[in-house]
C-alpha cells in the first residue's frame, strides 16, 4: 500500500518539473532553461553568471532592476500576488517586476545583458585587484575558488560549521561547476577548509519555512537537491575530491559521481540517513552497491556504518589514502602532473566512461529526491532534526 501511495506522489513530483522554473531560485532556473531560447539566451546565461562575480556591489536599486529584468526574461509579466505591506523586501521586488508591465521577454533579456555589461566595465575599471589575488574568484560567500596550474579548486568554506551545505552553498556550487565546465582548467577539485571535508546537509536548512509551509519547503528542497546532483552527473571534466577530513551525508554520497577520490587517513565516511529518518541521495542507492557490492552499501546506507579512510579505500569508494602529515603535498603534486595531460583526451575519455549511465543516473536522482521530499515531512525526520538542533541549542 505504501508503494502505491508513494508512486502516486512520485508521479506528481515528475509533473512538478514543468513548473520548476516558477518555484526555484535564479541559479536553478539557469540550469533548466538552457534550451528554451535562441542565440541571445547564451549571452543571458553568461550575464547571469557574471552578476555573481561582480567585484563591486551595484547597490539595491540596480539589484532590483536586475531582479525585475531576470524575472521578466524568464517568466514574462509579473504573475504573482502582491506581497503584504510589511513584507518590505518582497514587495520592493514585486513592484520592480510589476513595473515592467508587458515588456517582451526578449527585450528584458537584452536589457539585462546590457545592464550587466555596463556594470562589469565600471566594476573592472574601478577595481585595483593585484594579479596574485585574481587567482581567487570573487562573488562566492560559502566557497573559495581558485584557478591555478589548469586546476580549478572549489573549497567548501564554512569551517565553523564543519562545511555544512546550506542553501546558498548548494547554489554557489552549481554556479561554480557551471563556470568550471567552461573555464580553461583541465580538472576540477573539491576540498574542505578546516578540519572537516563536510558535515553534509546543513540541518538548519529545515528551519526556514516559507509562506507555503513545510510542504513547499520540502518541494523546493527536492528541486534544489535534484538540480544540485544533476550538475555532478553532467559535469564534463575529470572531477576530483580531496577529502581532507570527515565527510558526512550528501558530501559522501556524491563521491560516487567523482572520478578520483583522494583521502587523508584522518577522513571518515558516514551516511547516517536512517538515524535522521532520511533515505539515500546523490545517486548512492545505485552507485554504492555498484562500487562496493550490496552488502557493504547496505551497511553504510541503511545502518549508517561509519567507514575509516582505509575501509572506504578497501571498498572502492576512495581511490587512494595518504598520511595526513603529507596529504596536501602528495595530492597536489599528483594533481598538478595530471592537469598537464591533454584536456580533450581526458574529457572525451570521461564521456566514454560515464555517458552510457547518464540517463539512468538522472532517473535515479529524480526518484531519490522525490522520496526524500516525502521523508522530510515524516515524524521520523522532523524529530531527528529537532533533536540535533535542540542539542546544539539552535531552537
Ligand atoms: C536541499 C537539501 C538537500 C538535502 C540533501 C540531504 C542530505 C542528507 C545529509 O547530508 S544527512 C547528513 C546531515 N549531517 C549530519 O547529520 C551531521 C550533523 N552534525 C554533527 O553530527 C556534528 O556537528 C559533527 C559530528 C559533524 C561535528 O561534531 P563536533 O562536536 O566536532 O562539532 P559541533 O557539533 O560542535 O559542530 C560545530 C558547529 O557546526 C554546526 N554543524 C555541524 N554540522 C552541521 C550540520 N550538518 N548542519 C548544521 N550545523 C552543523 C554545529 O551545530 C556547531 O555549530 P555551533 O558552533 O553554532 O554550535
TrEMBL record:
* GO function term, MF aspect, one: fatty-acyl-CoA binding
Recorded hits in Pfam families, A to Z, give: ACBP (PF00887), ECH_1 (PF00378)
Where in or outside the cell?
Mitochondrion; Peroxisome matrix
Kindly tell me the pathway this chain contributes to: Lipid metabolism; fatty acid beta-oxidation
Quote the InterPro entries the UniProt record gives.
Answer: Acyl-CoA-binding_prot_CS, Acyl-CoA-binding_protein, Acyl-CoA-binding_sf, ClpP/crotonase-like_dom_sf, ECH/Chromodomain_protein, Enoyl-CoA_hydra/iso, Enoyl-CoA_hydra_C, FERM/acyl-CoA-bd_prot_sf
Identify which top EC class this enzyme belongs to.
Answer: isomerase
Enzyme Commission number, as recorded? 5.3.3.8
GO cellular component terms, A-Z = mitochondrion; peroxisomal matrix
List the signal peptide residues.
none
Q: Which reaction does it catalyse?
A: (3E)-nonenoyl-CoA = (2E)-nonenoyl-CoA; (3Z)-octenoyl-CoA = (2E)-octenoyl-CoA; a (3E)-enoyl-CoA = a 4-saturated (2E)-enoyl-CoA; (2E)-tetradecenoyl-CoA = (3Z)-tetradecenoyl-CoA
Name the UniProt key words of this record, in alphabetical order: Acetylation, Isomerase, Mitochondrion, Peroxisome, Phosphoprotein, Transit peptide
| PROSITE patterns (UniProt xref) | ACB_1 (PS00880), ACB_2 (PS51228)
All copies of domain ACB, residue ranges = 40-125
Similarity section: In the C-terminal section; belongs to the enoyl-CoA hydratase/isomerase family.
Q: What does this protein do?
A: Able to isomerize both 3-cis and 3-trans double bonds into the 2-trans form in a range of enoyl-CoA species. Has a preference for 3-trans substrates.
Q: What is this protein called?
A: Enoyl-CoA delta isomerase 2
Origin species: Neomonachus schauinslandi
Amino acid at each position: 500500500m505504501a508503494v502505491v501511495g508513494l508512486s502516486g506522489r512520485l508521479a506528481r513530483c515528475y509533473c512538478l518539473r514543468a513548473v520548476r522554473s516558477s518555484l526555484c531560485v535564479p541559479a536553478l532556473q539557469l540550469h533548466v532553461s538552457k534550451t528554451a531560447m535562441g542565440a541571445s539566451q547564451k549571452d543571458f546565461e553568461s550575464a547571469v553568471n557574471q552578476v555573481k562575480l561582480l567585484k563591486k556591489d551595484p547597490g539595491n536599486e540596480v539589484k532590483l532592476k536586475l531582479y525585475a529584468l531576470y524575472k521578466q526574461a524568464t517568466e514574462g509579466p509579473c504573475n504573482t500576488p502582491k506581497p503584504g505591506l510589511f513584507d518590505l523586501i518582497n514587495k520592493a521586488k514585486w513592484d520592480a517586476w510589476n513595473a515592467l508591465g508587458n515588456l517582451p521577454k526578449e527585450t528584458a533579456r537584452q536589457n539585462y545583458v546590457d545592464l550587466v555589461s555596463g556594470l562589469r566595465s565600471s566594476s573592472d575599471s574601478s577595481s585595483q585587484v593585484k594579479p596574485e589575488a585574481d587567482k581567487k574568484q570573487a562573488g562566492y560567500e560559502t566557497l573559495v575558488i581558485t584557478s591555478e596550474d589548469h586546476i580549478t579548486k572549489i573549497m567548501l568554506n564554512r569551517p565553523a560549521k564543519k562545511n555544512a551545505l546550506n542553501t546558498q552553498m548548494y547554489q554557489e556550487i552549481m554556479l561554480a561547476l557551471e563556470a568550471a565546465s567552461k573555464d580553461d582548467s583541465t580538472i576540477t577539485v573539491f576540498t574542505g577548509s578546516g578540519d572537516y571535508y563536510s558535515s553534509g546537509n546543513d540541518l538548519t536548512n529545515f528551519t526556514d519555512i516559507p509562506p507555503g509551509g513545510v510542504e513547499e519547503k520540502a518541494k523546493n528542497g527536492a528541486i534544489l537537491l535534484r538540480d544540485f546532483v544533476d550538475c555532478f552527473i553532467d559535469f564534463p571534466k575529470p572531477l576530483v575530491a580531496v577529502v581532507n577530513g570527515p565527510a558526512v551525508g550528501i558530501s559522501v554520497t556524491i563521491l560516487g559521481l567523482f572520478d578520483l577520490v583522494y583521502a587523508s587517513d584522518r577522513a571518515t565516511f558516514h551516511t547516517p540517513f536512517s538515524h535522521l529518518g532520511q533515505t539515500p541521495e546523490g545517486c548512492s542507492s545505485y552507485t554504492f552497491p555498484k562500487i562496493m557490492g550490496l552488502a557493504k552499501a547496505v551497511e553504510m546506507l541503511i545502518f549508517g556504518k561509519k567507514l575509516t579512510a582505509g575501509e572506504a579505500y578497501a571498498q572502492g569508494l576512495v581511490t587512494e589514502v595518504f598520511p595526513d602529515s603529507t596529504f596536501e603535498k602528495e595530492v597536489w603534486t599528483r594533481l598538478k602532473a595530471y592537469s598537464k595531460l591533454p584536456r580533450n583526451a581526458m574529457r572525451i575519455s570521461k564521456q566514454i566512461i560515464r555517458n552510457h549511465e547518464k540517463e539512468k543516473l538522472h532517473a535515479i536522482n529524480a526518484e531519490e529526491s522525490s522520496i526524500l521530499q516525502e521523508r522530510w515531512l515524516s515524524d521520523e525526520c522532523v524529530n531527528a532534526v529537532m533533536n540535533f538542533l535542540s542539542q546544539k541549542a539552535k531552537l
